[in-house]
Amino acid sequence: MKGGRPGIGSMKDSIITAHRRLDALLGETRSALRAADEARASASFEQLRAALEAHFDQEARLYYPSIRALRPDLKPTVEAFVAAHAEFGELLAEISASLDAGSLANAQQALEAFADALAPHEAREEEMLYTLDRDLGRPD
Question: What is 8-135's CATH topology?
Answer without folding.
Answer: Four Helix Bundle (Hemerythrin (Met), subunit A) (1.20.120)
